[in-house]
Structure formats: C-alpha cells, structure tokens
Design goal:
The structure is a single chain. The chain is α+β, with helices and mostly antiparallel strands. It is about 15% helix and about 40% strand. A hairpin with a 2-residue loop joins β20 and β21. The termini are far apart.
Length: about 675
C-alpha cells in the first residue's frame, strides 16, 4: 500500500514539474482567495473594536434635571446619537475624539474624550439679549422691559490706556458730547448728555458709582462692571431735582461665587504725541515777511538790512542776533506714560471678593533744563485702590462693603498758562534763551519762554479721595416672592493741597557790546533767586443714606409686575469755607418710586416719580414733585412677526413724558432767597 501511495506522489510531482511558472502562481492565488476574502471582511471590525471605546454619561440642564433629545456628535468621525428620556447617552468613539453636545436654547458644549468612558454634561442656557439685566435708576430691569432712553457702553469697548475715564466717552455712545480742553497730563474731558440742558456752570450730568454720587474720573477703567447713561425724563425723573442733565450709572466689579482666587495683572508702556503742533515761521521767514510789511508802509524801506539778516542766520553773535526755534526748545516731540494694574477676584458660598490696585503715570511734553535744583517738568501720577466684599450673613441676607482710595500727584511749571502763550508769540530773533555769560535774558516787550519754564519755580498739587460704602440687602422671597429691602450708607472724604514754589529772578536785556567786546545790559526786572512757598488747601466730606424696597414677580407666566420705593438723604460740608454762608451744609433729601408692568413682554407701562428738595431754596419751596410716565409696545414679540424675525429681530415702539429739575441754578451762590427776605424786612 505504501508503494502505491509513493507512486502517486511521484506522479503528481512529475506532472507539476511540467507546468509553467505562471500556471503555478495562478493555482497558488486561487487557493488563497477564500482566505483573503475572510481576512478582508474581518480585519476592519477587529481593528475598530481594538481602537474605540464606549463613552456614556448623563446630560443635565441648569436645574440638574435630565435633558432628553440632546444631540451628541463625534466631531472627527461624524457619528452621532441623542440622549434618551432620562438624559442618558452611549456612543462608541476613538479615545482622542471630541464630542459636541447641542440642544435648542442651550449653548453648545464641546469636550475632549481623552480616554474617559464616563462623561457627565451640564448644559448652560443661551442668554437672550432681551433677558439681560440693564442698570436703571436705583435698580435694574430686564432689557426687554426698559422703556426709557438708556444706553450702555460694553466694558470691552472702554479704552483702559487713558488717564481719566471721561476721555473715552467721545464717539462711544449716542447722545454724548465730550470735549477735552487740554492735553496736559491728568486732564479729563467735559461732557454732556443730549446737549446742555440747563444754564450756568452746573450743567454736567449726575454721576453715580455703585449708587453714590462721585466723580467719574475717580473710577479705574479696570474696575468697571457696567456703564450706562440715562437720557430722557422717564429714566431720570426718579432723581428729581438732580436729574436735569442726565445721569451716568457705573457699577464696579464684584467677586464670583465658587471661584478660586484669580489674579490678573496688566502692564503698559505708551508713547504719546500731540495731535497737532502749530508750525511757526523760522527766523528767515519772519524777517522777510516783516520787511515786506514794513516796506509797504515805508516807501520800500526795509527794517532788517541784509547784513543784520546774515548775522541772525549765521549765528556769529547769538547774544545780540539770536535765532531760537522756541517750539523745539520748549516742547518734546513725544512723551511717555506707564500703567500697572493687578486685581484678585474670587469667592465661596459665603464670601465674594474683588481687590484691585493700580498705578498710572503720564509725563508732559515740556523740555526743561537739568541741573536747576528742581524739576519743573509737568507730570501726573495716580495710585488707585479698591476692595469690594460681599458676605452672605444668612441664606437671604447679604452685607456688602466697598472701599476705595485715589491719591494723585500733579506737577507743572509755575507759569503754566503763560508758557503756552509766549512760546507761540515770541519770535525766533527776539531774545536768546540766556546770554553766553549766564545772565538771565528777557526782551523789553513780552517774556522769555525759557525763563517761564525753567526759572520761575514749579507747582505740586496733591489730591486724596477716600470712599466708603456699606450696604445690607435682605431677600424676603421665602415669604413674599420678589420682595427685597436694601439699606446703604456711604461716607467720602476729599482733600486737596497745592504747594507753589515760586521764583522771580532779575532779568536783563543786552543793548550792545563795549570796547572790550563785553555785553552791555539794561536791567528790566528786579527780583531774587530764592524760591518762595505759597500754599492752598481745599476739602470736603460727604455722607449719604439710602433705604429702599423693591418688588418684581411674574404672574400666570404673562403679567410681570415691578415696583420701587426709596428714601435718601445727602449732606456735604466744606472743610475750608470762605465765608459763614459757605460753611453751612449742602443737603438733599427726598423719596422716589417706580411702578412697572408688562404683558407677555409685549406691552409695557412704567411710571416714575421723584419728590425731593434742596436747602438752596426758601423753606416753603424746597421740595418739588418730578413725575414721568412711559408706554411701550414690542411688536417683534408678536407671533405674526416670527416669519421676518431673522430680518428684524427686535422692534419696539415707545413714548414718554416727564419733568426733571436742577437745584444748582445760582452758580456758586447760596441761599439766593435771602436777598428777597432782606428787602421784605426793610420795608
């Protein structure tokens, strides 16, 4: 049997030897084809199983409730699933995949899998612009409910590189006109809301920082949370006798609950240049134009001979024939400023905090000499500190303490105003900066800009503002939904000191040279080289008390009702009065109220009033009533507007009427009614 088998094997082997190479390869390929097909079908599945993981989790809404129907998309593979009725999901993806969670009315949430198999998600609702809160007089309102003319300036658009906040208002908001009258370091801008509403010097808007009347320029731009202006009577009538010129509302930043301490730092270095400097005629241009004008009246005779003009221009005798470019001698082409700010914000369930400090310095464009024993250059610097603290004393009771301080130092030449004038007026050939032997030079008419900058002394102005605010807010919502009470008290102090170190040196005018070639002088001012000190002080202190009740509630998901009732009083006392009358306190006192109603955020009604008075009026005429009323209709919230909402998303019609007032009608005068009383008694 074995022999037969061997014979068959040998026969088969012999037959194969007679086959061609191509035939052998074909037989081998056909024999392997079924195995290759099996591998082709099995390999992708096996590879996929080895390179993917199953990720699962639960999606919750902002109230920690399950959110069904949420779309989950694998960004790279485009595989997708949705959550079930319990908010659960399960998807098989690569370990380095990104998952995008999306749902109507909620913000998209993109997370990196990073090998995790259990990824819970909490969705955050989209904030509608109309549901945002807007700061209004003595409170806040939903943006959709606001009927008065109120404009907000986004914090991101506030230029943080300026020296004072008032310098950023121009061109930022409709209805605001701002004018910067000086480019001197530390100078701010004057501004008006919808033009000048009242006569006299007291036509500036009322500025409230955290609800307290304060100077706009004392606020560091880094500390601002919200910035709004109130324009019309509906928005400002609640301020009564103080609201005639519009109102600026600023709230400062607060800490964030549940946030670890976040430290932010900012450092800036800026190069500043004048917007435009006038170009003055040089020596040659001046003499040629003067000769032309002189010859017109003197029958062709020239005032400056060619020989004199040559001496002025070639510099052979700079004492008697000076040639000075006063713009270059007094001013630099550019200057610098520096700013450093650091703040810390954070908080827990019990305490929230925001603490900030900053330093700013701006140099002027004057170019003083060195080695004078003092520095008459202009500059302005400020140290700013703020601390806002919110403490949850109880579940519905919040205590807030806001402290801030600003310390300014301003330096400038003694004759700051005259220096600008005479730099422009003094001709190039009038006088040298100083004579070659060191004698102080001064022309017979006018003055020497070099002396005004360097030899007349300097000023130092110190300003310190300390501001404090303590408030207590009680939420009565557990008992009466939407009812809150607040009481706040502030005390501010302002102090100003001016030190003037003045010098008036003897000055001379060179009339020629003697036989030895020395200059001959005429003394045109008899003075001394000693600095004399003059000082001036100003200051005041201000207290403010406010108590209020606010209410807001939504009934039947359609009727939104709000209300406010408030009492306030303010007292300001001059620490350095000029007279007995000026030593008496400035006082304001009054009440204010507001009622609002809206139906399905389509129809709006609002009424405001301010009943307040001032000590500046006669006893029986100190108080005034300032009402306002407004209606509004947001047609874009109607159902029939939906087809064109993508074209016009928000459209509101509104109208208002109100009365507002101003108690500062007598300029700096106090108690104007006294003269009437005196005339009455003299009869």
């Amino acid at each position: 049997m074995r022999t037969c088998i061997d014979n068959r094997k040998r026969k088969v082997f012999n037959d194969i030897k007679h086959l061609s190479t191509k035939a052998v390869l074909l037989i081998i390929f056909l024999s392997l084809l079924p195995a290759l097909q099996v591998m082709a079908m099995e390999t992708p599945d096996e590879t996929q199983q080895k390179s993917t993981i199953r990720v699962q989790g639960r999606v919750l809404d902002e109230f920690n409730q399950p959110l069904p129907g949420v779309s989950i998309l694998a960004v790279k593979s485009t595989k997708g699933v949705i959550t079930d009725i319990d908010g659960n999901y399960s998807i098989e993806v690569a370990p380095d995949e990104k998952l995008e969670f999306s749902y109507i009315g909620y913000q998209k949430n993109v997370v990196l899998v990073n090998g995790r198999k259990d990824i819970p998600i909490k969705m955050e609702p989209l904030t509608s612009e109309l549901k945002e809160v807007t700061v209004v007089g003595y409170g806040t309102q939903r943006k959709a409910s606001v009927i008065g003319a109120i404009t907000g300036l986004p914090v991101g658009k506030i230029n943080r590189s300026v020296n004072k906040l008032s310098n950023v208002l121009a061109g930022q908001m409709a209805g605001v006109v701002a004018v910067q009258r000086s480019g001197e370091p530390g100078e701010g801008s004057d501004f008006w809301i919808r033009g000048v509403s009242t006569f006299g010097a007291n036509n500036r808007p009322l500025v409230l920082v955290d609800g307290i009347e304060r100077d706009l320029n004392l606020v560091d731009p880094e500390d601002i949370e919200t910035f709004s202006i109130l324009k019309d009577a509906t928005a400002t009538a609640i301020y009564g006798v103080r609201g005639a010129n519009g109102v600026v509302l600023i709230t400062t930043r607060k800490g964030k609950e549940g946030s670890k301490p976040v430290i932010s730092a900012r450092a800036e270095f800026s190069i500043l240049q004048p917007t435009k400097m006038p170009k003055m005629a040089n020596a040659q241009e001046f003499m040629e134009m003067y000769n032309f004008a002189y010859a017109d009246n003197k029958n062709g005779e020239e005032f400056y001979s060619p020989e004199a003009m040559a001496k002025y221009l070639n510099g052979s005798d700079p004492d008697l024939y000076p040639n000075i470019n006063w713009m270059d001698e007094i001013y630099k082409n550019s200057t610098t400023s520096e700013r450093v700010n650091i703040n810390v914000t954070g908080g827990s369930e019990k305490v929230k905090y925001y603490v900030a400090g900053s330093y700013y310095k701006e140099n002027g464009v004057f170019r003083p000499d060195k080695g004078l024993g003092y520095n008459p250059a202009s500059s302005w610097s400020r140290f700013n500190f703020r601390s806002n603290l919110d403490i949850n004393l109880f579940k519905n009771t919040v205590l807030n303490i806001n402290l801030s301080n600003q310390y300014d130092v301003k330096k400038q030449p003694n004759n700051n105003a005259s220096l600008w004038i005479y730099t422009f007026k003094t001709i190039p050939i009038a006088i040298p900066k100083k004579y070659s032997d060191g004698t102080v030079a001064r022309p017979t008419i006018g003055d020497n800009p070099y002396n005004l900058l360097n030899l007349n002394g300097y000023n130092e102005l110190f300003t310190n503002n300390a501001q404090s605010l303590i408030g207590l807010t009680q939420d009565f919502s557990p008992w009466i939904k939407g009812l809150k009470a607040n009481i706040k008290f502030s005390w501010d102090a302002y102090n100003y000191a001016h030190l003037n170190r003045s010098k008036n040196p003897s000055t001379y005018y060179a009339t020629g040279r003697n036989e030895d070639g020395n200059l001959m002088y005429t003394k045109n001012n008899d003075g001394n080289d000693y600095l004399v000190l003059y000082k001036d002080n100003k200051g005041n202190r201000t207290t403010y008390l406010e108590a209020s009740l606010t209410y807001e509630n939504l009934f039947a998901n359609a009727h939104r009702v709000g209300g406010l009732f408030l009492f306030n009083m303010r007292e300001k006392i001059d620490n350095f009065p000029d007279s007995y009358i000026m030593s008496l306190p400035y006082r304001n006192q009054g009440i204010a109220g507001r009622v609002t109603y809206s139906y399905k955020d389509r129809y709006f009604i609002e009424g405001n009033f301010g009943y307040n008075g001032s000590e500046n009026f006669a006893p029986k005429k100190r108080f005034g009533f300032f009402p306002s009323a407004a209606i509004g209709y947001m047609i874009s919230n109607e159902a029939f507007w939906e087809p064109i909402s993508h074209i016009v998303s928000v459209l509101k019609f509104k109208g208002s009427y109100g009365i507002i007032g101003n108690d500062q009608i007598g300029g700096n005068r106090r108690f104007a009614f006294n003269s009437e009383k005196e005339r009455k008694y003299s009869q």
